[in-house]
Design a protein that fits this description.
single chain; five-stranded parallel sheet; three-stranded mixed sheet; 21 helices
């Protein structure tokens, strides 16, 4: 099969693949890609960069296989290879920017549909997209997620009632509504109600005014699963609301119905609620969600970015994850500003502009990983490698290649750390430079040196001090 036929075949595959991906992905990750050859019924696809290779292995390989098999029925496997020279061979690849033109219409945000609940209720606060499968798990929320998963599979069992709390906004709505969505799928005949304490109070007031308290009690005391969010707002001064909640809670508890209560603090700190309520909360199954770490914040940003039809550079994710640590709500707000700028102004903001977004959500924040001036003698990664290799009397190839001996690995880790901290390069760019390493290995190397510095390792401190002196980093 000649070059032309291979190009035509690749164009047919791209045409069928296009509806599965956003245009931003097509013109970026499929850019300068082509079919190299078809050998032993294996489809060999060239991509120009290693970062594209990893994206295809995770996102497109299975889809391309399904599409290509319709064209090549005897196809056995799709294999990707990185060949940078392909970028200059335009006889092979398809110009994706021209072939997939931008649509001249604005994307409308869909109105969230009403979710029908039992007993004549509809609600727009429930989001059917919140599922346990797309909830990002980290060490400090794994217990809460595990309990939520157990309840979704078998409510009314071991973890009933369940009290969930956290100090700041950490995807609590996602987790609570995910339980709601999973239960109604697994137990379609069950009656499940998700309500905030404010909504609960408003319904009590409305029912008293309309003299429909019996209808209110029937609604809440015949449910199979009751989820109440933000219980901390159920203040003691609302005596009738607290009374109705107490009796509703007792009725459901005695009938062994599933109760899930959420708050922004542990039960013992809800000192303005009635003592009889607090004492019961403390005897329940409890789980706390704490702040996500840096890697988790990266994952959250990446997952959330899928909601926006724009391609955001990885170093932008890293910069936000390093500097926004107090709340996932703030993470998502900053990301939304960036996505809006890309969509409306057709440009990606630089780090200075992103820093201005971050300062809007936290005026007292101290900047991490961003400076106005570059070091005097080192301007790029090649300079750092040269100084480190010279200091340890190694060849540059020793640091860049795969040798794993101790005398090479330690200088390599120092080089990665300096590149990260003093050149402010993203992990993705370091990974591309040390192309045989993966993203996790780079992060491990940087963290290992950072931990040694924190633990006041004298050897590491001495080596860094000498290297910085040679590089004129003061």
């Amino acid at each position: 099969m000649g070059k032309t036929n291979l190009k035509d075949t690749w164009l047919r595959i791209l045409t069928d693949v296009y509806p599965r991906f956003w245009r931003a992905y097509m013109i970026t990750y499929f850019k300068n890609s082509a079919i190299l050859w078809i050998e032993h019924w294996n489809l060999i696809i060239w991509v120009p960069r290693s970062i594209f290779l990893n994206w295809h292995l995770e996102n497109s390989k299975a889809i391309i296989f399904d599409v290509a098999k319709k064209i090549i029925p005897d196809l056995n496997e799709v294999i990707f290879q990185v060949v940078p020279e392909l970028e200059w061979d335009d006889n092979r690849w398809v110009n994706t920017i021209e072939y997939f033109p931008k649509e001249n219409k604005w994307r409308k945000l869909p109105k969230r549909p009403d979710v029908k609940l039992p007993n004549w209720i509809t609600s727009q606060i429930l989001n059917p997209k919140y599922r346990l499968a797309n909830f990002v798990i980290w060490d400090n929320n794994s217990m809460a997620h595990a309990v939520a998963e157990a309840i979704a599979k078998k409510p009314w069992d071991k973890y009933n009632p369940f009290f969930l709390y956290w100090k700041t906004w950490l995807w609590k709505t996602h987790l609570l509504q995910a339980i709601w969505n999973e239960v109604i799928v697994n137990f379609p005949e069950s009656i499940v109600i998700y309500v905030t304490s404010e909504m609960f109070m408003n319904e009590v007031v409305w029912s008293i005014q309309k003299r429909q308290m019996e209808k209110f009690r029937k609604k809440y005391r015949q449910v199979d699963v009751l989820i109440i969010d933000d219980i901390q707002f159920l203040a003691w001064r609302w005596e009738k609301t607290a009374e109705e909640f107490f009796h509703t809670f007792n009725t459901l508890r005695e009938a062994w119905k599933q109760i899930i209560i959420a708050s922004d603090r542990p039960p013992k700190e809800l000192d303005w609620l009635e003592e009889r309520l607090v004492s019961r909360f403390e005897s329940w199954m409890t789980a706390e969600i704490k702040q996500p770490d840096y890697e988790t914040r990266l994952a959250i940003l990446y997952n959330k970015a899928q909601d926006y039809q724009s391609l955001i550079p990885w170093d932008v994710f890293e910069f936000i994850a390093m500097n926004v640590t107090s709340s996932i709500r703030e993470l998502e707000w900053v990301l939304m500003q960036i996505a809006a700028m890309i969509e409306l102004q057709h440009k990606t903001p630089d780090l200075k502009q992103i820093w201005e977004f971050i300062k809007q959500v936290n005026k007292d924040i101290k900047l991490v990983w961003f400076e106005e001036k570059m070091p005097v003698l080192i301007k790029n990664m090649e300079d750092v490698i040269w100084y480190v290799a010279d200091y340890f009397n190694l060849n540059i190839s020793d640091i860049l290649w795969k040798a794993r001996t101790k005398d090479v690995m330690y200088p390599r880790q120092l080089a990665m750390y300096i590149i990260k901290e003093k050149l402010w390069q993203s992990l993705m760019k370091i990974w591309e430079y040390f192309w045989w390493r993966d993203h996790t290995s780079v992060l491990h190397s940087v963290n290992k040196i950072a931990l040694a510095i924190k633990n006041k390792d004298q050897i590491v401190k001495k080596d860094l001090k000498n290297l910085y002196k040679e590089m004129w980093i003061w």
